[in-house]
Task: inverse folding
């Protein structure tokens, strides 16, 4: 047995602690594939198909456009079979996916996520161009590759049917390349024609309008990764899809987080979309049904994003208590233990380590609960360059004690005036330290309030 033998045959888990109305909801745990997602299935299927058809030769190069998970599936198979891999990835994808791929030796090209099909920077158009210009390369193109849905027709569909003894009333699925929905539609239409196929679609994608109305306007944007499209994939067969349910980003991300809290299952952002749509479908039913959806990939790939409370708060996906003053701009509150601070006796080395660990550029220096100074990267650099101190000296020796304090009742214009000077605003209430307000905090606040 090698790692490729671990692909597929994933378990099915029943949802027990989330309200699903009169229905039983089952989750196909695709996150347990060796590459961490359902896309391992198509990575294996498409490479084997390319070998059989002579498109891939020993020592060849595979090129693909991907949101990350197909890339990981391809990288897994390519590593075992000895192929080079070049991936073009939109810039909205999680760093965990990118780091995973780079650790596997994959060449990564990051491109824009704010352009549509036909633009030279669009990830599929760019991948096709790279394949044409690279010797002995094959553009595997999951969006037009018949081996993509074949993987789900021959493996995923039969596994679901076997696990529920053929008692599958509905399957809720998303669309990325459309391989899953196409393969499952064909399998269940042929073997269990009463099974209903439901599409879960991120708000901003065109697919829900295409299914429900037969037409669509220009695509919007969405945060959820891996599903949703701005075009209808060529390999897509949607004839068995009875309806599409639109789910916004906030609902998708928070539903995935609820899955972790209540069921102990760590799924990715698209899993949240599918689960939210499946719950909505289940609650709309008046008679019991067996409903299946997917934990498409592991949430380990989103720890810096949807499972990071600060990332969620900064984008308005977690609603914070509102005060009607400058406290509403704080992304990190001192009273909640969210502000990284140092004591005056802590060393310069500790300051540098904390800046690197938490990816911050300034640190408040505290004496008990009173802020007595602030230190940033430039303070450390100047002091070290001038040989005024070394890394073992107290950080208080190089901190700035001329603090720019601003009261929580101050106006937004007063804050803007302070930030325009290139300063960090130290928010206080009757002399009590509340937190820091940086330009990025102001930008996040404006993004949430000026829409």
Result:
């Amino acid at each position: 047995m090698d790692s490729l033998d671990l692909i597929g045959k994933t378990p099915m888990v029943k949802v027990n602690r989330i309200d699903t109305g009169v229905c039983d909801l089952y989750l196909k745990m695709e996150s347990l594939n060796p590459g961490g997602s359902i896309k391992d299935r198509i990575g294996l299927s498409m490479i084997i198909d390319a070998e059989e058809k002579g498109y891939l030769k020993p020592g060849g190069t595979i090129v693909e456009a991907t949101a990350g998970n197909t890339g990981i599936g391809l990288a897994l198979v390519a590593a075992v079979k000895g192929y080079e891999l070049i991936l073009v990835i939109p810039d909205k994808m999680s760093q965990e996916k990118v780091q995973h791929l780079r650790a596997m030796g994959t060449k990564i090209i990051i491109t824009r996520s704010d352009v549509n099909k036909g633009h030279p920077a669009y990830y599929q158009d760019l991948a096709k161009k790279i394949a044409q210009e690279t010797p002995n390369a094959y553009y595997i193109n999951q969006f037009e590759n018949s081996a993509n849905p074949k993987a789900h027709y021959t493996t995923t569909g039969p596994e679901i049917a076997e696990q529920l003894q053929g008692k599958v009333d509905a399957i809720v699925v998303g669309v990325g390349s459309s391989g899953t929905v196409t393969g499952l539609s064909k399998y269940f239409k042929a073997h269990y024609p009463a099974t209903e196929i439901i599409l879960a679609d991120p708000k901003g994608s065109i697919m829900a309008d295409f299914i429900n109305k037969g037409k669509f306007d220009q695509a919007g944007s969405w945060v959820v990764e891996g599903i949703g499209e701005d075009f209808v994939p060529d390999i897509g067969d949607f004839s068995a899809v009875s309806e599409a349910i639109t789910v916004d980003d906030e609902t998708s991300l928070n539903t995935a987080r609820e899955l972790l809290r209540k069921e102990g299952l760590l799924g990715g952002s698209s899993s949240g979309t599918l689960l939210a749509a499946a719950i909505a479908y289940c609650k709309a039913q008046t008679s019991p049904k067996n409903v299946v959806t997917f934990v498409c990939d592991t949430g380990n790939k989103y720890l810096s994003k949807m499972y990071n409370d600060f990332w969620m708060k900064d984008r308005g996906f977690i609603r914070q208590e509102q005060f009607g003053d400058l406290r509403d701009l704080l992304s990190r509150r001192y009273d909640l233990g969210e502000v990284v601070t140092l004591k005056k006796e802590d060393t310069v080395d500790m300051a540098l380590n904390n800046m690197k660990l938490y990816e911050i550029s300034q640190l408040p220096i505290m004496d008990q609960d009173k802020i007595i100074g602030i230190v940033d990267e430039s303070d450390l650099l100047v002091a070290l360059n001038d040989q005024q101190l070394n890394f073992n000296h107290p950080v208080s020796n190089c901190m700035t004690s001329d603090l720019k304090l601003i009261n929580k009742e101050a106006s937004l214009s007063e804050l803007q005036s302070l930030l325009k000077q290139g300063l960090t605003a130290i928010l206080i209430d009757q002399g009590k330290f509340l937190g820091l307000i940086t330009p990025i905090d102001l930008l996040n606040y404006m993004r949430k309030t000026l829409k």
User: Anything to note?
Assistant: The chain has 14 helices and 16 strands. The mean pLDDT is 93.
